[in-house]
Amino acid sequence: MSILTWTWILTGLSFALYIYIAYATRAKSTGDFYAAEQSVPAYMNGMATGADWMSAASFISMAGLISFMGRDGSFYLMGWTGGYVLLAMLFGPYLRKYGKFTIPQFMADRYYSNSIRLLSLMCAIFISFTYVAGQMRGVGVVFSRFMGVSINMGVIIGMALVFFYATLGGMKGITYTQVAQYCVLIVAYLIPAIFISMQFTGNPIPQLGFGSPITAEGAAILNDPGTQGKYLLDVLNGIQKDIGFGQYTSGARPRIDVWFITMSLMIGTAGLPHILIRFFTVPKMRDARSSAGYALVCIALLYTTAPAIAVFARTNFIKSVHNVEYAKAPSWFKNWEKTKLVGWKDKNGDGIMQIAKGKWDDPIEKSKNEVKIDQDIMVLANPEIAKLPNWVVGLIGAGGLAAALSTAAGLLLVISAAISHDLMKGMLKPTMGEKEELWWARGAAGVAVCIAGLFGIYPPGFVAQVVAFAFGLAAASFFPCILMGVFNKKANKEGALAGMFVGIVFVAAYISYFKFINPAMNNKDGWWFGISPEGIGTVGAALNFITMWVVGKFTPEPPQEIQDLVGSLRYPGKLVAPPTQH
Q: Average pLDDT of the chain?
């Protein structure tokens, strides 16, 4: 069967499963909608958290980034997995013991201030919409390539599916749907990697295969008998040097920037609202910590495989395209050319595709590179480049959709809860009943889905840049305030407000300057102290901590009831009830 047929079959079966689960676990109360009645087993919450986190960026983009960046891409692996260690040790158990529904609600109760609640929900909504725009666009790209429909139609189909199970099931439906989506995406990610690892090195474990010697079969695939017995990474380094790039295993970024980016990704991950709310869904404190451990294992399966896929894909890509006549270009190149995510310009008129360092659309005197490839297609195109069976190619499409839709649903629930629970119930209409609040929640989720779909159909040109905003804001706002709120009884509302303001303003100003106002300066020579916009969240978090501590020294201590609440969060026994008025 063709790739299109296999994709429709596998995607149709997975969509039918998601819809069935969403209907069977539909929410009947606000407790169901926001926190699945705190009844999700730890191992299932770990799988759902993994699916929630492993978005289109993780499934589609991360290996592509590493494939283009080489060793420098390792900070994504270290930062995004390290954040879960922080979650398990610092936040998970205490947020579960707190036992409410949303992060803005925790912030408001802990810092006895609706001003902090408003600031928190604004940050949560901004961060969530930033992410969801990329997810919906990823859905459109997958549909466009693998299912023969336009990108816009793909976005609309994705909108309809997410609208159904996000508004019907809430957190309960989303959680069990995400368990199924995790199974689909991880199988789709691992199977091609195992196939290609066997092709190149005979080793079925991709994490070991990309550092192993090339077999005779692998040398035949590369059409270079001289590579037999050589380590795959050494061969890739040689290929890179031959076409004018630096060695794949060498890094170009300053070490200080790698450290700051890694730390920003870690604390940004630990401060992301759609991840934090998952700890409200388990029965006990112990389950919260266990679910973070399960999530780390589930995520590690994909994240440790990504470097292998990056190496396989880059090696195969260069070998299959470089110095090849365009008339004899491989079928995968022709297929992806229709999406305009790959392309070729014959700059010297010889009819041969040539890869070189530089932009493909530069004038010939500036760059001899004639081949364009979007880094986001490296994972999706990898099975086709490696000439794997059509069912494997179709499976990668189903996996990409599962990754994008699972994260989109989690993000939309954060937006829905921020509007219905924190804004309407918490601030504007505190007397509303549960039934009315549930209608507000579903209505907010529906509107958010429509807005997310518009972002997917008409993506803002700065989507890639505002991702730095998302992590920077999470690192500089939520992480310090939640950490101090749990571990420091003396942290007060004045300090928290000042700390969040300083952290947010500093990070927003730094990223805005280098990404929007003066992008020409966005390089290691223009950055302050060699720290890129992607790593500035670490500095913002430090400024938040310092400001909270200094302001707290010169302003009144929190009320005794707040200090008792903090003490009861971290020690065995019953939680002291938080105040109801701020």
A: 83
